[in-house]
Amino acid sequence: MKFKNIAFVFLAMGLFSCTNDSSDNEEDIDIISPEGPGESATNCTDVAKYVFNENGGLLRVEFEDAVFDSDWKLKNDDAAASGEGYMVWEGDQSLGTPGMGLATYALQVTVPGTYRFVWKSAVKTGDSGSDHNDTWLRFNDASDFFAQKGESIVYPADSGKTPNPEGATKDGWFKIYRSGSNLDFKWQSSTFDNNAHDIFVTFSAAGTYTMEISARSSGHAIDEFVLFTDAISLADATSDTVSKSTITCKN
């Protein structure tokens, strides 16, 4: 009887030991889940550290993905807006002096070249397409920042280059406006009063560049923006099927 009890004890100890070994082995295994489609390799939670990564000559960014002055308001009352909604300036107008309500975006470029810039915006104040329809834009560290219509090329005032456009421009900033009687969100970005020129920026080398925006007209709402090379059409760059640029974190 004693031998039977002793045998039972050893058997129980053996089973307990095997169970523990099995648990230890499971804890040592690293189970790695693959990333889902469109997920960033870096889970960046600090908006101030966002870096938007160009891919294949295209950048597409939600305008609200930046750090804003309190007079920039995030709204989500328009079904035409993507992402979390759109930003609209509700502070004082700054028609002649850029620098108010400043926000910046870090853009990582791997394909050097000239990119066209367009944002999707709307007029949320009044009923005129020529008022409350613009915001300042600058690329101060790019190789070139200009506007073009056919053979006509203009540069921001105080950039050291001429000619400059008619209308507001100062300290390397362009006034970027939208026009037309349709006040709803649409893809359009121009400068030069009454002679709309498209907006371009040249990145001569791969690297990280800073895009700056500054409030100008109250009631101007912006949803998202794109930059794209001439290998991509405006229609393709702004298609609803195009994914937003991957976001990584600044070191």
Account of the 3D structure:
With 251 residues, the chain is mainly beta. It has one domain: Sandwich (Jelly Rolls). It is 12% helix and 34% strand. The chain contains two helices and 16 strands. Strands 2, 3, 4, 6, 8, 9, 12, 13 and 15 form a nine-stranded antiparallel sheet that branches. It has a seven-stranded mixed sheet with strand order 10-11-7-14-5-1-16, with no helix packed on it. The longest helix is centred in the N-terminal third of the chain and has 27 residues, at 2-28.
Average pLDDT level: 87
The CATH class name reads Mainly Beta
The count of strands amounts to 16
The SSE string, one letter per element, is HEEEEEEEEEEEEEEEHE
According to CATH, the fold-level topology is Jelly Rolls
Give the strand content: 25-35%
The appropriate CATH architecture is Sandwich
Largest sheet: 9 strands, antiparallel
Number of domains: 1
Oligomer kind: single chain
By CATH, the superfamily comes out as Galactose-binding domain-like
What structural category arises from helix and sheet content?
A: mainly beta
Total of helices: 2
**Proportion of residues in helical segments:** 10-25%
Radius of gyration: 27 Å
